[in-house]
């Protein structure tokens, strides 16, 4: 599955493929970067990293059930649904990271180490997810011939009509051969054929869920250099600044240990231009 097909846009103004501001239609606005907005983005992405890792753990358990008596159509459906949901979470996380990178590029450089740590955590989670996705697809595909062999047995002998004349002499008459061939035919039911068809569809669905993990990680890693290039591409404008004190503390501490902020009254006084 193409990463671009699930990475949706959203937010303010025209946005690029990761949800960041587009260079087209750029106009400065008198506003401020509210550290509470940054805090929400940090916490949202950190929660998504946790969801991705939890999904990987669940998928690894389901992987062990493939090829066992617990391998049912319900299991295959749940694998497909779980991968679809995780793909959406990854797309949303990459978009949010891009938004934070755009904000911190010109406003809160002191918070960039936190963003770097968050990108590393996200990349590690996506890497784990890519590994288990590949294992599920490979094992499902490997199990399909076994299911087919269980319902379709191949006759060890060629049809009588295809034998040479001398072979027909030693193998008996046509009627005798047809009787032997009839005895070798397996009992293939409509249920068997339907089960094989459903398995094949489930495998195709799982393979369609495969993300280009390497490309996503490469895009995340290149965000820092892209930010540096973007600074030189815009006309000189007043830069937005983070409100005094940096990011405020949250009642629910995030894994990133967001730093304590200043007074709210000081934050409301800062009015500067920000790129959108």
How would you sum up this structure, described in words?
This protein has 276 residues and is an all-alpha fold. It has a single domain (3-151, 211-274), classed as Methane Monooxygenase Hydroxylase, Chain G, domain 1. Helices cover 60% and strands 2% of the residues. The chain has helices at residues 35-65, 73-106, 112-151, 165-171, 174-184, 190-208, 213-221, 223-233, 264-267, and strands spanning 29-31, 272-274. Helix 1 (35-65) packs antiparallel against helix 2 (73-106), helix 2 (73-106) packs across helix 8 (223-233) and helix 3 (112-151) packs antiparallel against helix 6 (190-208). The longest helix has 40 residues, at 112-151. It is elongated and about 70 Å long. It starts with 28 loop residues before the first strand and ends with a strand. Residues 8-31, 149-158, 228-240 and 244-276 have low confidence and may be disordered. One of its GO terms (cellular component) is membrane. Residues 30-141 form the Syntaxin N-terminal domain. It comes from Macaca mulatta. Residues 1-36 are annotated as: Disordered.
Could you write a compact summary of the structure shown?
It contains nine helices and two strands, in the order βαααααααααβ. The protein is an all-alpha fold. It comes from Macaca mulatta (Rhesus macaque).
């Amino acid at each position: 599955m193409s990463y671009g097909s699930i990475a949706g846009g959203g937010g303010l103004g025209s946005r690029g493929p990761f949800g960041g501001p587009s260079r087209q239609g750029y106009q400065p606005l008198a506003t401020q970067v509210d550290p509470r907005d940054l805090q929400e983005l940090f916490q949202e992405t950190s929660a998504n990293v946790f969801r991705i890792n939890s999904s990987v753990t669940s998928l690894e358990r389901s992987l062990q059930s493939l090829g066992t008596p617990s391998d049912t159509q319900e299991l295959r459906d749940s694998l497909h649904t779980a991968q679809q949901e995780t793909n959406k979470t990854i797309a949303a996380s990459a978009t949010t990271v891009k938004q934070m990178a755009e904000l911190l590029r010109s406003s809160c450089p002191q918070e960039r180490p936190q963003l770097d740590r968050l990108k590393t955590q996200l990349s590690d989670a996506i890497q784990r997810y890519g590994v288990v996705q590949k294992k599920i697809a490979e094992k499902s595909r490997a199990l399909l011939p076994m299911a087919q062999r269980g319902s379709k047995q191949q006759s060890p002998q060629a049809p009588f009509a295809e034998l040479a004349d001398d072979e027909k002499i030693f193998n008996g008459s046509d009627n005798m051969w047809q009787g032997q061939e009839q005895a070798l035919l397996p009992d293939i039911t409509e249920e068997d054929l339907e089960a094989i068809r459903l398995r094949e569809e489930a495998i195709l669905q799982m393979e369609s869920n495969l993300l280009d993990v390497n490309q996503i990680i490469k895009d995340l890693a290149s965000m820092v250099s892209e930010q540096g290039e973007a600074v030189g591409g815009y006309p000189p404008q007043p830069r937005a600044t983070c409100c005094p004190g940096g990011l405020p503390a949250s009642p629910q501490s995030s894994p990133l240990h967001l730093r304590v902020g200043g007074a709210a009254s000081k934050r409301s006084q800062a009015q500067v231009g920000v790129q959108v």
